[in-house]
Amino acid sequence: MKLKKTLSITLSILLVYSIITVAYGNGWIPEIKIFNNQEELTFDVPPQLIGNRVLVPIGSVLRSLGAEVSWDSLSRKVTAIKDNSIIIIPINSSTAYKNNTSVTLDVPAKIIDGRTFVPIRFLSENLGANVHWDQKNKSIFISEEESKSSLTFSIKGISLGSSLETVTKILGSPKRIDPSEYSFKWHIYHNHYKDYLQLGIKNNKVVAIYSNHPIWENETNINVASSKSTLISSLNRKPLDRILKGNVYYLYPTFKNGEEYQVYQLSNAYLTVFYDLHKNSQVSALQIIDKSVEEEYHRPLNTSAELRKAYSRQVFDLANALRVREGLSPFEWCDLASLSSEKHSRDMAESNYFNHVSLKDESPFDRMKQEGITYRSAGENIAAGQQNAIFAHEGWMNSFTGHREAIVGNYRRLGVGVWFGTGSSRFNNYFTQNFYTP
């Protein structure tokens, strides 16, 4: 029989860099950072600190909030309009107005060097946004409030914040409970890989949801198989390229300028949308994680043996969930193939290389034979640097060099092995899949 060899590589690296923090007194504060939905705002004239209030040039903030602004030079009043809110701010007055109701300001609006400055908290909150001051990093974070009905993602009535008791009543017991690199545990649910679902549970509450099946419920009609254009139009916001955690930016560079996945900020969560480049970039999976849980997560990863095993089983489950979704038969798990895969992932991590052929010049097929595997056809996928099993799987599925063909191909058995990098390793973690047909 002809031996089928699948040899190809996928890489994805998470980059980080630090911001500088400084202390300020009253007056000009050019170093202050202001973010709206995690996107940093820029000003041609820097903000000003008066007392304990930050005043900003009105134009930049209003544009970021999607509001219209007008200036009445005779009455010296600024009017801002957004949706059903009309804000009127007289210059040098401690009284402003929202929909004809007076509001007392701690610091009045001012004209400085011909520019109009307004208190950022008053302006943002009265136009439907939340404002948070980060004293440690001298940064202001604006997050726009949203219609909960239109941006609540759920599956079978389960959403972020649902109790474990509610989950059990609806879904019963999970197939398996896995550790994660986060502070929650994944509860895995599926019926012979139909309606595959991972629920992150922390303190008996749902704090994360992932699924690559079209079982999502939301009023925006976003689901697996939705077009990318529909999703972007429904969300009506820009994707993030970074998330600030403490004083460190976590960047999310992806292949092909963000085409493989995008991260969006919702009011209380981060939504990651994975795309299928082989199907006109339609949505291939969705993941939503509670905002506080995501922001408390920092690398390095938990490097326990239990987490390695969890990633291995999840890679296997994700491949099978995808196959069943596409009308294919699921793989059979093979311990020997898993052992072969794990040994190769460990060797790459400890010997600091990334290749299908080992430093001993052993191919995937040599390694499988050493474990006693005989086959008609066989193949291997490897990946390194992805955050977890989900990102590794989605990366393979977007490959144009053979990974996808192995996952949706005619192989019957699959074993997966994962190993974490050491201090001298190039990557944090290494994933290997060994496929074969006896």
TrEMBL record:
- Per the database record, which ranges form the SCP domain? 317-435
Q: Where is the Copper amine oxidase-like N-terminal domain?
A: 37-142
List the signal peptide residues: none
- SUPFAM superfamilies membership: Copper amine oxidase, domain N, PR-1-like
Q: Give coiled-coil spans as residue ranges.
A: none
Q: Which InterPro entries match?
A: CAP_assoc (IPR029410), CAP_dom (IPR014044), CAP_sf (IPR035940), Cu_amine_oxidase-like_N (IPR012854), Mao_N_sf (IPR036582)
Q: Which residues form the CAP-associated domain?
A: 160-296
User: What is the protein name stated in its UniProt record?
Assistant: Uncharacterized protein YkwD
